[in-house]
Design goal:
It is a single chain. By secondary structure, this protein is of the alpha+beta class. It has 4 domains: about 90 residues, Serine Threonine Protein Phosphatase 5, Tetratricopeptide repeat (Alpha Horseshoe); about 270 residues, Neuraminidase (6 Propeller), CATH 2.120.10; about 100 residues, Sandwich (Immunoglobulin-like); about 170 residues, von Willebrand factor, type A domain (Rossmann fold, 3-Layer(aba) Sandwich), CATH 3.40.50.410. The protein contains 15 helices and 38 strands. The strands form 9 sheets. It has a 6-stranded mixed beta sheet with strand order 32-31-30-33-34-35, with helices on both faces. The protein starts with a helix and ends in a 6-residue tail after the last strand.
């Protein structure tokens, strides 16, 4: 109806002014407009149909082909998307946005990331305590980076702990309450495994104690006292924690590491009675049941189990004075050694120098890894913190994508933007000043950040239940799993909701988003059951439901309840790659809860590629762990609001839209566009 009115309007205009009108062009433009409307609503299949209709009338239109590529990409058809974008680039070789999009997608689809070695780290930014325009920083000793990218910075000489955002702006200053800090050396934010409350531990070198504070900066209690008895300190320095509620503190003067629970109860000392004794413990970190301790005096790293037993040591003959240590990933340990930053490969037992700061650094003491892949290195001697990035990252830029533009309240619009690095890892913690928006390359000022990764938002899950005869054998366990997941979800729209889909021979939405506990259990238990149950269609439909949800910025995930055993027709309509890409390209992870002995590799592959995980229903706390994992997942999506300055032509004008993101000498940009709603 609306389409016909638009065509009548265009025809009337042509007759009124005596001008000829290209009806094919008018219909192509109308199909294009509907294609964009469907795209920004998350209906990618409808968008593809409309854009293909537009191209059937005007096949050379590069703008329409660009958008068709975008819709195909979001629908999971990456080969077809690349073909369209390459056509656009051939017709417009100077389009750097399309060129970069093709380059990033080709890199991720190939073996680039697996074969690429970490390049040299270079200084991308500096926090300079001596800069007259910056916050005065006296003798920084350590840095602790939070999951959202914000940074705790400990100033030893000025008795402060600063909280900075990712742009190095001071957000808060902790001074230790009424008593104040006495030579704070390190800090660590932890979460109590029992109640989820978060605390900040701070070592006080001057008072020979560890201070436990809440995140408002209020003192909770102190741990330890001066001395050499069990649990006492002579110069406590660096901190580490495990996932079970235990704190590890380097006791420099006593040449040991003390272990406490989070309430401050002493457990044991590490490093004095083992065959690999500590002399000058400095840096410390914990991973998977093992405690890594840098011994500056003995010039090595020593590894202990969490009971204090020494396991092995390494670095002798290589290290000259190790201090700060941190894991870059599971297999790579970074070590501050003198003026150098070294990387140790635990699997290959090899060392690589990532950066040499000897030409300008004073005394390097500590380091921490940002969730954005940057390395913060503390220079105690020069009152600075260096922010290091891989050299390649400074030249390959950020990958910025506009997910959708909501123009229903035009001229006020909201824009969903994802920001990732070349490898697809999310860039978190960005502020309004990191974004630049333009229409027809004229900047739009005063964008307002509404939501960012890490902000509390409800969960939206699509629960897919395998309807096979094998799954029917687990009906009691299946019902109990749904009950447990519902309990962990919270069961209210404020905390989360889900829909339930049956993946049988036909895929059916049994319950829409917001289903109750009883409805969900009933839907999970009911048949029909078939040996030809449809995994591919089940996952595609579940993903489509989440994409088109009106709750734009919820944390979304697909949860599959399955035996874990697939059949040869599991990907007969949509390939494994197309199913995976559909989830991945829309930022939706797959979580698999399996009831059989071991899940097939295809399920593990989809989970690994989309950022989800595989868990056995019979594992301890499986439901709680799964929901916790989904809640913690930051993602890469930002929601911003701004006001357009462009004449919409009553909704008939295409509005060209650009976004640029700049962050620590790295940048990325993308192009998009939209229509305002039709109006008289």
């Amino acid at each position: 109806m609306v389409r016909n009115l638009v065509l009548i309007f265009l025809l009337a205009c042509a007759m009124t002014f005596g001008q000829e009108i290209d009806m094919e062009a008018a219909q192509a433009f109308e199909d294009f407009r509907w294609g964009l409307r469907a795209f920004h609503s998350g209906n990618f299949e409808d968008s593809i149909l409309s854009l293909e209709k537009s191209l059937s009338r005007k096949p050379q239109d590069l703008r329409t082909r660009y958008w068709l590529g975008s819709a195909l990409y979001r629908a999971g058809f990456e080969d077809a998307a690349l073909a369209e974008w390459r056509y656009v680039l051939k017709g417009n070789p100077g389009n750097t946005v399309v060129d970069n999009t093709i380059d990033v997608l080709t890199y991720r689809r190939g073996l680039g990331e697996q074969l690429e070695e970490r390049t040299q780290l270079v200084v991308a930014s500096v926090i300079d305590g001596q800069d007259s325009n910056a916050y005065p920083l006296r003798r920084p000793s350590s840095v602790c980076i939070r999951e959202d990218g914000s940074v705790y910075l400990v100033a030893f000489a000025s008795n402060e702990v600063l909280l900075l955002d990712v742009n190095n702006a001071v957000q808060k200053v902790f001074q230790g309450g009424i008593q104040g800090f006495d030579r704070p050396y390190d800090c660590l934010e932890v979460e109590d495994p029992e109640d989820g409350e978060r605390f900040l531990f701070v070592t006080e070198y001057g008072r020979n104690q560890v201070l436990k504070m809440n995140l408002r900066g209020d003192r909770v209690h102190a741990i330890g006292a001066r001395g050499s008895a069990p649990g006492e300190f002579l110069g406590p320095q660096y901190l580490a924690a495990d996932g079970d509620g235990y704190l590890y503190v380097c006791d420099w003067g006593n040449g040991r590491v003390n272990k406490y629970d989070f309430d401050g109860n002493f457990v044991l000392s590490i490093g004095r009675s083992s065959n690999l004794k500590l002399s000058g413990p400095t840096g410390i970190t914990y991973q998977e049941g093992q405690l890594f301790v840098a011994d500056r005096d003995r010039k090595r790293i020593i590894v202990y189990d969490d009971s204090g037993n020494s396991l092995y040591g390494f670095g002798e003959g290589i290290l000259t004075g190790p201090e700060g240590i941190a894991f870059y990933d599971r297999d790579h340990l970074l070590v501050v050694d003198g003026f150098k930053l070294l990387e140790y490969n635990l699997r290959q037992e090899t060392w690589v120098t990532l950066s040499d700061l000897s030409s300008f650094a004073g005394r390097l003491t500590h380091l921490s890894i940002s969730p954005n892949g940057e390395v913060y290195v503390v220079d105690f001697g020069e009152n600075k913190v260096y922010i290091l990035s891989e050299m390649a990252a400074l030249y390959t830029s950020l990958n910025v994508q506009i997910e959708r533009i909501n123009s229903l309240s035009f001229p006020d619009i909201t824009v969903e933007v994802t920001v990732e690095d070349r490898r697809g890892r999310p860039i978190v913690g960005l502020q309004e000043e990191n974004f630049i928006f333009s229409e027809f390359f004229a900047e739009i000022p005063a964008a307002r950040l509404l939501l960012a990764p890490g902000d509390p938002t409800p969960l939206e899950l699509s629960l897919v239940v395998e309807k096979s005869p094998g799954m029917r054998e687990y009906i009691p366990d299946l019902a109990a799993a749904v009950e447990s997941l519902y309990e962990q979800l919270g069961g209210s729209t404020r905390t989360g909701s889900w829909s339930v889909l049956s993946a049988g021979e036909q895929v059916v939405v049994e319950r829409e988003l917001g289903a109750s506990r009883l409805e969900s259990v009933q839907a999970a238990r009911s048949g029909p059951w078939s040996t030809r149950w449809r995994l591919d269609r089940g996952l595609r439909l579940a993903t489509s439901q989440l994409i088109s949800s009106k709750m734009r910025m919820s944390r979304k995930a697909v949860v599959l309840l399955t035996t874990g055993t697939l059949h040869r027709e599991s990907f007969s309509d949509f390939s494994l790659a197309e199913v995976t890409d559909y989830l991945q390209n829309n930022g939706i992870p797959l979580y698999v809860v399996y009831f059989g002995p071991q899940p097939d590799r295809e399920l593990e592959y989809i989970c690994s590629q989309t950022g989800g995980s595989v868990v056995s229903y019979f594992a301890p706390r499986s439901a709680a762990a799964l929901i916790d994992d989904i809640r913690r997942r930051l993602g890469s999506r930002y929601l911003l609001e701004l006001r357009s300055r462009t004449d919409s032509g009553f909704g008939k004008n295409y509005i060209d839209f650009q976004t640029e993101v700049a962050f620590h000498r790295k940048s990325g940009r993308t192009q998009s566009g939209y229509f305002a709603p039709l109006s008289e």
